[in-house]
Records
---
Amino acid sequence: MFSERDVSRPSLQKIYGKESDECDRCFREVWTQLIEERRRALARDERNPEIYLHLAGHHAALMEDETALSVLREGLTRCRFSVKLHYAYIEKLRKLNRTQDAIDAIHQALRVFPHDLAIRMKESLILPVIYQTVEEIGYYRRRFWDGLSALAARISLETPESRRDALNAVSAHRNVLLGYQGENDLELQQRYGNLVHRIVAANFPEWADTPPMPGLNGKLRIGYVSSYFLNHSSVVKTFLRWLLMHDRVRFDVHAYQVGQAPDCIADELRRSGMRFAHFSDSVHEVARAVRADRLHVLVFLDIGRSPVMTLLAALRLAPIQCMAWDHPITSGLPTMNYYLSSALMEPPNGQDHYSEKLICLPGVGVCYQKPVIPRALLGKRRPDYGLRDNAILYLSCQSTFKYLPQHDDLFPAIALRLPSAQFVFLTPNHDILKAFRTRLGRAFSVMGLSVDDFCVFLPQQDIFNYWNLNLLSDVFLDTIEWSGGVTTVEAIACGLPIVTLPGRLMRGRHSYAILTQFGVTDTIARDKPDYVNIAVRLGLDHAWRQNVVERFKQGSRVFYSDTCSLSTLEDFYQEAVKQHSSSLSNDHVY
């Protein structure tokens, strides 16, 4: 018998191996059984909001989103005063990109809970997952600005109750979608960061001021904190070698996992000789432990990915605090000193996009570990995904919110010149699929084409099916203004040429940097027409396509063995600590 904690695809894959059909069958059977149990519980206690929450979650696990919404609406009918049910219903609508429906649900919730600051924050800062037009982006950007200004004026921190309510509100908000609008978000992020800092400092005044710099005798103590020190996460794939390869003579390395239970990555970190600690989502627990370790430098790897990471970063847990770019956008926090970036990824005016001081490490800025693609386990063919055997297959597999409407015309422009093209996209749910397909349909229609003739929309894949899909494709099409990072590296490992167009901001230049460091730059486009030309040529010219792939193989040894970014990072840590200590000494003298 399985418990709810057992019913994840990774846990079932451990039981059944990598045969996804058997895993999927078991996954569905177990959730169906849990649904039946919840239904029986509901018959006995129809006014218990927790049962509705669990039941909706079970249906959502099976991608039965309409049923999940129906369950939540039924729960709200019977348990109108359950704030958790209102939260869940609003969040479900938001994830399905039913933004206006979510706003209507927020207004309904505010009629029941007019003083709930968390609901008010949802109303002020809600953003769509995917936009239909450029004008819609502008509308929600202005709405976010106005809502943030109103929140900052509204929030009071004068009483213990008001401080607690404000903390609960920011603890429930994940400020992650703003960066996907393709704009410079410095001012908006600073406004949000200042608000969060004010709230967190009022609730945890003992950790609001900068701690003293520890002495410089012996090793420097460097801490890395993340919510995703987990197998197959982008944090691990991007930054793990920083931690594993640090010079242990010069540095004492600490790793802090916040939130989810640790897995095999924790064992790897411990075996390397560093100190690893796991904490719940308790700000108090983490802050106390990190302060007790008396670090010289603390690095936040994924600010923005989870609320607790933002809350922790808004405190002063070490005298020098840095952020890395798992979520590549400025934190806007007054507590963050440095942004650790890549010399190849940053545009010439990069500093204009950050509240932190920009530190550009050589090359791509990290030491990627070469992906190991288990080809022997990846035996699916194109028909298994509903794809044509005779198509030139273009894989465009980024998260849907990375696709901006002003760039939809790239796909029909390629199709117009290459009728055998087939484009593959991954979408998280039916509503997002429908919205994205409608938007692309307009772009194809303008050129006299049908989206159904060229585009295939697949659900998000587990890691093995995803790699398998890469192996079956011919060309990888990068997104503009927020490009691939790990996805680009893994596509190269699967033998795919990459078409990319570097954007105006660092987050739109990952693939550009990766291809440049590999030494394969002829598929980097100058502009959108050049992007289309390169994509079409790769589709038609098999010999050139193979030549590009072969040059990636030749560049692999140099790319994956390059540790210049790490040695530069270590030198930066030592110099920053020295300068900070010197500054404190001079301040003391005067």
---
Amino acid sequence: MASVADFAQAQAPVYHQERPAKSGLVDWLTTVDHKKIGILYGTAGVFWLLIGGLEALLFRLQLAKPDQDLFIGTQYNGLVTMHATTMVFLAVMPMIAGFSNYFVPLMIGARDVAFPRLNAFSWYTFLFGSLVINASIVFAHFPAGGWTGYAPLSTRAYGNDGMDFWWAGLVLLAISSMVAGVNFVVTILNMRAPGMTLMRVPVLAWMMLVIQFLLAFSFPPIAVGLIFLAFDRTFGAVFYETAMGGDPHLWQHLFWLFGHPEVYVLILPSMGIVSEVLPVFARRPLFGQHAVIFSGVFIGFVGFGVWGHHMFTAGMGPIADAVFAATTAVIAIPTGVKIFNWLGTLWGGKLTFPVAMLFAISFIPMFTIGGLSGVMHANAPLDLQQHDSYFVVAHFHYVLVGGALQGLFSGIYFYFPKITGKMLSEALGKAHFWLFLIGMNMTFWPMHDLGNRGMPRRIYTYPADAGWNFDNLLATAGVFFMAAGTLIMVYNMLNSLKNGKEAGRDPWDANTLEWMTTSPPPAHNFDFTPVVFSERPLFDHKHTEDLAIPVPSEAEQIHMPSPSWKPLVVATGALLIIVGLLLFNVAPLLWLVSVAGALTVVVGIYQWVSEPV
């Protein structure tokens, strides 16, 4: 038997690729390594976080004082639409994808994901989708139909030309998410290390498994809704045109059948991160780990049955209202289970407070505030009163900023050493934490008051005598605090890459398999396949002699998939199909671009499946 150090110095594995990777740009363009794809997703997520924050800052400047005209009408609506779309689809989701791509295979002791080339295809369709949405700034106007795209505001009659780029980009993002969901479900269920039963899978990997099911089953409805919208706007169909027998409520049902599971796609990974961080810095196991896992599964399951609470004002009728009110109240129960398990983990622990721990602890009360205001809106009559007010804006920002984003920040400070081999500055990190926490509460807490005072959502100005002046000025000031904190984080990351302290293999004395390998890990992750004996495999290997790691007498034969251009080729074909549909309104003959894209997809897939595994 041997220690972790002996394991690291064991005989080198026999490592084989069909075609070795090339260095530089070509390597990144053709990579199928889950870690590099995770870095690409995470980098894109941080970039779009800055863009989405800038958009928020601009429209908050418009609202800082009454009767301003910095951004009015369609300009203001476009900023709000792009802010929400960017933050949900282009910032938080790719940051989550970055964590899932990089760490899920490491956590379960796998070499890579089940379908590495499909993983690269998912990345490129995301990249092209994000560029298409933002191309509206150059070739058209900001889409101004709201991030929910409610018909008829998104139809040709009322929506501007930017909405074409909006639906087109979201179709590509839907394809990306659906194939990624299937890929990671197969990976987690079939590629776990020996001894890693499902109940020994780390909580973060479990939450990633739940959201992959959510992605695989929730994105088809929105994809159908977007295709209907594309047909309405491009070919004159009438799916959402009431005058011609269409029904705008159809869009609402399709959107929220996706949209509310999407809320849990955004929040469950942060719950998983918090569940990994708290035990490490409390120096004790996660309290009730199985309860935390099953509550996450329950949230995912019931999450498909609550979409109608977004439509209490749409006139669904008392029976539907009652059903959705009941399911919305029920889904608060597993969330409460998680909160009490986190508090139980902290109780009596030997706590230390690095930045990752500060964000994880802050997550609990901030998310609880958002969750409590959400439970209030399970009451249909109360929701009718507050639905289109700033109270609801406060609710979902406490969930998504106080919850999802703070959890991701905790993950960045916790896992950055493993990804880069360098430690982030704790001093800069704490400046980021306090500025962001103070700014977040300055921005979103007054919105509860604004909503109760009657300020509606989606207005670009207000009269001076409405009584909303101070709250709006305070909210705008808070955005600058959050922006300053986020910029400090970005500087911290960039500076640490060059000047950061060496992290070593396991700087936090952590519990799970990803900390067993080097920082950063090699292309093949582990020199030898790890063997798992408990829910805390690395902790037990380090602290229990009879569970030490066996060092094989002979090196393993490791085969890794080769780099490939085919995912990029197929994703480019999908992009051309979308571009052809966008150009159809300019000149009908340009639909031939879509034909060229379809041929590119067919040829690319044929070559893809002909490549060696």
---
Amino acid sequence: MEPINARSIINDAAGAAATAEASPPVLERRRRLSPAALAVTNQKVRAAYSPIVIAGFVRLADFGLIALVGIALYLGYVARLDGFRWDYIAAILGMTTTAVVCFQAADIYQVQVFRGTLRQMTRMISAWSFVFLLFIGASFFAKLGGEISRFWLSSFFLVGLAALIAERLILRGMVRRWAREGRLDRRTIIVGSDENGEKLIEALKQDADSDLDILGVFDDRNDARALDTCGGSPKLGKIDDIVEFARRTRVDLVLFALPISAETRILQMLKKLWVLPVDIRLSAHTNKLRFRPRAYSYLGTVPTLDVFEAPITDWDQVMKRLFDHVVGALILVLAAPLMALVAIAIKLDSPGPVLFRQKRFGFNNERVDVFKFRSLYHDQADPLAAKMVTRNDPRVTRVGRFIRKTSLDELPQLFNVVFKSNLSLVGPRPHAVQGKLQSRLFDEAVDGYFARHRVKPGITGWAQINGWRGEVDSEEKIQKRVEFDLYYIENWSVLFDLYILLKTPLALIKGENAY
């Protein structure tokens, strides 16, 4: 038997990749789209940036920049002459906090403002001047004017203002570049290609600062009420085409132009569309029934009613990504010795690569390659997982039985989390694209199955720690998985992720349904 070393394990990993690439292609059931819709999906689209997160980082940058300028000037001039005093540092931090609050009150933390120059600069200079006038007034009434260096104060005002102007000019260039790349647009589709749809599109286009990019309209009707071009936007297809369309290109918002009175039609459409990770709103611009202003959210001046919101967005997405990469990297380092032992055991037990890649469903039904330790005999590998592993399955090796029972075969998915970012530590488990219950694919067996793909899949999840893991041999098992996955999506928090992660080892010890 050949010796086991790190180089042979790396070669085995490469062999696994080659095996996966040589495997038969995944048979996909894809709906045929219209030429107009295909023209949109074929356009190159970059990932979107959240305006809320951008504004948050600008606030942090402002705070850090102002504090840095104030402290640097103090240490470079005042502290050298009079010695170090903490009251100056406290004053600087207080002025910095006040400045950020005043900038917020001046309404300059908006992406639309970041794009301009005159409005942004005048508001910022006014707010910055107000902060110093406020500080001078406070120090006068507190009889501290003689203790504050006038040279430092005037330098802080001028250098701080110059630094803020330079920062805003750099930010303006970045935001304009992102706008050209489409990263700040909300890619929107309209449901309803009729007179109401035309009025809605015209109202949306009247807002010069709108970030909406209207891709087109969808409508099921084939009579004269359904226009081929609605408000200058092409009709892209029927309602059933929206799900496929949104999986081929980035869609951020689905906006219904139908009146509230069309309740039955709207409910039928929502039943099809709620599985998508997008915001869904109902336009209220033509409705005679009016609610309180707080009941609406607005797109420019157009009132809308929120129906569904995309889960885990903005700062939640940032927090989850940080959690995945920081905690995932730590777990990977701690698990490295154990993973090496498992790799050696697999190599000694049967010929073939240590790792293999399997096609799984990812976010929004994206196909992702998931890394796993090989637990089947190499000549009986099943990269598409077309046949579920069952109790006493003859394809499973001796080591494979142990690592599947303890879920050690899942440890290489940490590479997906830390390096490829197509998995999370916690989330709905990524099912195989050909996963079946008897002769039916999972999405055919469970209504709303694809709603679990509105978030990134995970190594462990709420369903797994509640006992719903392993073999799927009954309709109840797949329904329960989906039920628990949807509960997780609706109730996500960082603490919930941490709780699931800490409970996972206890669930693995039980080893229920894992073969």
---
Amino acid sequence: MAEGSVPAPGAGQTNGGAQGAWPGGNAEPDPRRWLILVVIAIAQLMVVLDATVMNIALPSAQKALHFSNVDRQWVVTAYSLSFGSLLLFCGRLSDLIGRKVMFITGLAGFAVASAVGGASVGFPMLVAARACQGAFGAMLAPAALSLLATTFTAPSERGKAFGIYGSVAAGGGAVGLLLGGVLTSYLSWRWCLYINLVFAGIAIAGALSLLRRQAGPRGAQLDVPGVLLVSSGVFCLVYGFSNAATHSWSTPSTWGFLGVGAALLIAFAFWLSRAKSPLLPPRVVLDRNRGAAYLGILITAAGMFGIFLFLTYFMQDTLGYSPVITGLAFLPMVVCIAIASNLSNIVLLPRIGPKPIVSVGLMLAAAGMAWLTRIGPHSGYADTILGPIMITGLGLGLMFSTAFNTGTFGVAPQDAGVASATVNTGQQLGGSLGTSLLNTIAASATTSFLIGLHARPTPAALQQALVHGYSTAFWWTSGIFLTGAIVCGSLMRRGPLRAAAPAGAPAGASAVSAASAASPRGATPR
């Protein structure tokens, strides 16, 4: 049966079918679904780790390959541009040609690009490898999340699966700081890229043995104008934000690209209502809960930049921590993220729905960042940093895992890939916005502090100025999280998640439940 089709009830179908099927359905959950979750989690961990691992490796790579500070930004920007601009296209492609194909292709391509990057003999080779990593990451990330959404359809199991996935997605960046510090300190910066071959090899072996390939929906077409509009628009926005982080908001290369990107995305939204087979069906984003989840992820991703980057700078440059100790310092936050992610999806979400969980989570994160503004040049870890990052970790765990679940809940199987890509696009755009906005705020606050001294700054004054910049960025991060709480609290519906039944499903069945009924017996839609 074609992926995404819903069988009409007929003879031989009995009520009380397998868990996850709509009433009258006969599909059973895949007995290997928990092994599939392990494969998905490994793949997601590889993608999330890559960003922070490379940030730790950059200074060493710069020395080895002899490129300038101006060029250094392109090692990060090349990845962001290709990843962000191709996400929606690759998400829809996974719906059309199959998630298994896109998942394995993304894994293999990401591994090869990582190997090339690790073996780089010059700056152009490294940048090209990073751009290819981004392109294959855009294939991998939405396919992984859509596999998760379509493999786990029973509410109780879905909560556990998304709790684990949310822990990896929200906490992987902090783990990457530790791993990057260990690899750079004891091996080489090149191993920050080579390590991806280990993750990819395990995930590919698991995917080949566990996932079943299924055909895409019959007669489906790719929305080429939509692909061109959204890919170009996101490319321009990511480039504009990246340029603002290293240059200025007033330069033509910043506001020009941002303006063009915004215009292209407006044109894309206009086109969606007129396209025969739109790249991003309006039904995916117009649901209040899903739309709020996408916005919440974008806003939260913008604020998360303030945690990892500035706190890393503070601990290494001001407190003198080594990269390894800095990574270890983030581990309590990772533990809190994991606890809150599973608590929210397994215990809270089925009972009270996403609205209070996301709102409280973002308010906790805002409180943690406000508490972190108390840092000073001689702060101690236990009395100044530990408490705030644990509170923030609890908040981010509640928010991210719930938003991932909500953003893919109730989506028909034929839209699962593009819905998952929308989640990832929000993360990417939010991260780019946070990078440029908070960098500018921190730099301006540092400069203003030094100007206010009216004297030649001493080394101690320079440290105070830097800490003032970090503290100001943390205040803004707190405000960003609070804004997200207000937005999500206003838009999300009260009560547990309830998905409308798609056409052709029996009365009372949800879209997610119908997704499992769309599969052959014993298989889940992939």
